[in-house]
Amino acid sequence: MPHSYPPPRGTVLLLSCMDLRLLDETVQFMASDNLINRYDQFILAGCALGADVNQHWEEAFFDHLDVACKLHNVEDVYLLEHRNCGAYRVFLGENGDFDDSDEAQAREQVLHTQYARKLTEKIHAWGQEHGRALRVRSFLMDLRGHVELLS
């Protein structure tokens, strides 16, 4: 993945999905961003969608973000969405089920972007309330581990 953003200089909080197919690929992606041993990871089924559909999970994410900021001075948050996410199917039903057609893949990307942006706005608001200027980057990983920047 060509990096089109400045690299984080400090510790990052990574929010990712629980998908077991992409555990190694997630570690490889973080290593490719020079973040070996420089990130905290929080996992929710569906990543940003999980925080949106479950208030308790959203609260847990922000509690974790608070502790990560206090302990590790986090300045960057990564939201790592992924394609073919089972949690999207569980939470959204037919609207979260995508085949491999170009049209379906485009709709899937739009949906991931939508939920990532929604959580990004909440993270920025939280940062302002807590006196922290947090940078948030959203990514979409395919099932081969290729990652693209969403925002």
Could you describe the 3D structure shown?
It comes from Hymenobacter aquaticus. The protein has about 150 residues and is of the alpha/beta class. The chain has one domain (about 1-25, about 40-85, about 110-150): Beta-carbonic Anhydrase, Chain A (3-Layer(aba) Sandwich), CATH 3.40.1050.10. The protein is built from 5 helices and 5 strands. The protein is globular, with a radius of gyration of 15 Å.
- Dominant shape: globular
**Helix proportion range:** 40-55%
Structural class determined from secondary elements: alpha/beta
**Major sheet summary line:** 5 strands, mixed
CATH topology title: Beta-carbonic Anhydrase, Chain A
Question: Strand sequence of the main sheet, in spatial order?
Answer: 2-1-3-4-5
**CATH 2nd-level architecture:** 3-Layer(aba) Sandwich
The level-1 CATH class: Alpha Beta
Whole-angstrom Rg: 15 Å
Output the helix-strand order.
EHEHHEHHEE
Count of discrete structural domains:
1
CATH superfamily: Carbonic anhydrase
Poorly predicted segments = none
Number of helices: 5
Summarize model confidence as the mean pLDDT.
Answer: 95
Counted beta strands: 5
Q: State the separation between the terminal residues, measured CA to CA.
A: 14 Å
Protein name: Carbonic anhydrase
GO molecular function, one term: zinc ion binding
